[in-house]
Write a structure and sequence with these properties.
Length: about 90
C-alpha cells in the first residue's frame, strides 16, 4: 500500500494511464483484425481501405510507445504482404 501522498497520487495516475493504454491497445488489435477479416473474405478493395486506417492506428500507438516500433512495423509489413498475396 502507498504510504506517502506522492505514492498515492502515482498509484492513481497509474490506474488512469493503464485504462487509457488498454483502450488504445484494443483499438490497435481491432484495426489489425479488420484487415485480416477483409483479406480472409477475399475483398482486396476493402482490405486496402482497412489497411490504410489500420496503418494510422498502428503508427499512433507506436509513437506513444504503447507497442514497440519494431512490432508495429512487423504488423504493417505482414498485413501489406497478405494484401499483396491476394492478387497472386
Amino acid at each position: 500500500m502507498a504510504n506517502t501522498a506522492q505514492a498515492r497520487k502515482r498509484a492513481r495516475q497509474a490506474v488512469a494511464q493503464n485504462a487509457h493504454n488498454s483502450a488504445l491497445r484494443s483499438a490497435y488489435r481491432t484495426a489489425v483484425k479488420g484487415v485480416r477479416k477483409a483479406v480472409a473474405a477475399g475483398d482486396k478493395a476493402a482490405a486496402l481501405v482497412s489497411f490504410a486506417a489500420a496503418t494510422s492506428v498502428i503508427d499512433r500507438i507506436a509513437d506513444k510507445k504503447i507497442v514497440h516500433k519494431n512490432k508495429a512495423a512487423r504488423h504493417k509489413s505482414r498485413l501489406n504482404s497478405a494484401i499483396k498475396a491476394m492478387a497472386a
